[in-house]
Amino acid sequence: MKQYLLNQISSLTAFSLKAVLFFMLVQNSGCISSRQLIYFQGLQGNGTDTLQGVERYVPKVQVGDVISVQVNSLNQEASSFFNPYAAIGASSNQPNPSSIAPLPNSLGYLVSNEGTITLPLIGSLPVRDKTTSQIAEAIREKLKTYLKEPTVNVRNLNFRISVLGEVQRPSLFTIANEQITLPEALGLAGDLTIYGQRKNVLVIREENGKKTFARLDLTKRDLFKSPYYYLHPNDIVYVEPGSARVASADRLYQVVPIILSALSFVAIIITYNR
Predict the structure, then answer these.
(1) Which residues contact 262 (CB under 8 A, 6 or more apart)?
(2) pLDDT at residue 199 above 50?
(3) Rounded to an integer, what distance in angstroms lies between the CA atom of residue 262 and that of residue 271?
(4) What does the pLDDT look like over 89-124, one tens digit per residue?
(5) Which of 152, 184, 207, 252 is the most buried if burial means most Cβ atoms within 10 Å?
(6) How many Cβ atoms sit within 10 Å of the Cβ of residue 28?
(7) How far does Cα 72 stand from its chain's mean position?
(8) Model pTM score
(9) Dihedral (CA of 38, 202, 245, 186) sign
């Protein structure tokens, strides 16, 4: 008889826990409409339309940036003299089993407070407020004195963005091609969770010592015309949690004590009937 009562209590407790969890899921799913989850809303029905976007953003090098310079020519031995970081970079980029997803090593030339970098034989070279292609062309012209048919590749190693908040994989991302849009950044982070506010995505940008806070609506096509559509180096993208996430957290704090009390009650009954 005792064992029968014990089994009934355990079954009732398990059923209660399942009912509570089901109630939480139903409540959470009912708080969000499908219209709130659709990106770039505009055209209704079938067909196509066009939208004039913003001009493509081309970043310029600033003080404190670290830029890599890779030089090649018909004489590889002579070219290696202008690539002092190549050997260091090759050895430092070997797989490290003890580290998890490390940031790329910033091996390159630091832009000084005067806006210059110093290269072998060339000496000081102004780079501030110039694009990487402009810097590469300036270096190539100076290398013609020392190398035959030189080619130069310049990259800004400081192009990084942060994506935080209600996304699948919040992280700091290094952008190799020096150009990324807001949707692409969210894609790198695994897209928004079901709880993320698609109508209120915050982009934080620092320019000339001032921080600018812009809020963007991913559900509207006006996003493509925003000056924040193309992200700049060191931009921070923050996705705020919606009311459903807050309500879910509140319900969780309310339900957890009930679940723990039920489990404690079952444990006491089992211990008493041994």
Answers:
(1) 13, 16, 17
(2) yes
(3) 14
(4) 444 444 444 333 344 455 789 999 999 999 998 999
(5) 152
(6) 16
(7) 33
(8) 0.70
(9) positive
